[in-house]
Amino acid sequence: MEEFPNFELLERYRKGELSEQEEKSLKQRRTEDEAFNDEVRRHLSAQAAIRQAGREHLKQRFREVYHQEETAPTPKVVPFYKRQQVWLLAAAVITLLVATWLTISGPSTTEGGDVFATYYELPATPLDRGGNDAEGVSRQFDQALDRYDAKEYAEAISLFETLLQDSAFSMQSAARFYQGHALLQINKPQKALEAFEEIIHPLFIQQAQWFSALAYLKLGQTEEAKNILEKISGDEDHYQQEQAGELLEELAG
Asked: Is residue 181 a contact partner of residue 211, using CB atoms and an 8 Å limit?
């Protein structure tokens, strides 16, 4: 089952691409289906945060989104898919925070690697991770993220890999995202690329694109990086559109 079966519909709604009849039906469904209305609201909040929040204002925007979540009425038992949405929103938005500015350890031998070190930011993990899977699986995921936070990257990678082999684990894209960054930290950009390419969750796709381009630069594969950067710079909804353009200019020079 798809994680977000209504994602394409809601994106078309956000962009004003629905027909008059489709929009009328969507609005009617919102009035009749509380769960669907909540999904629409969360989708619009997440996309707005990712699109609009720049480095200087992102942290404040993140707080505003979650203030809305905290003050909104909630049922006594929060359904699984809603709890998962909250965690994934937190994880996706927090990757845009400039809470940690680090470069990969170890010298780089290529010009692309130098550019990588200039543009790369190590994403932090969400403070409130929540429990979305079976208790044991959630605990293992927390342990993997703890090892990532502690810069024990080899152990984190191993824990992520174990989780990714577990059919009971539902947050595959989040695990691959942080596993990819852990691999970058131990200077394994090719393996990191493989992890980023497996990401399918909508809230992580843009970040995976950006970091894949940087990983290619780390590998010295400038043309592959440029191909991705050109796609990003041509996407007005991409959170790194402007920076991708700047990086392309730098690589051209």
From this structure: yes
The string of pLDDT tens digits covering residues 42-67 is 877 676 555 544 434 444 544 454 45
Quote the CA–CA distance of 126 and 148 in Å, as a whole number.
12
Is 12's pLDDT higher than 90?
no
CA gap 11, 48 in Å, rounded: 11
Whether the per-residue pLDDT at 82 is higher than 80: the answer is: no
Distance between CA atoms of residues 192 and 178, nearest Å: 9
What distance in Å separates the CA atoms of residue 78 and residue 126, rounded to the nearest whole number? 19
pLDDT tens digits for range 153-166: 999 999 999 999 99
**pLDDT score, position 207:** 92
Q: How far apart are CA 70 and CA 114, in angstroms?
A: 42
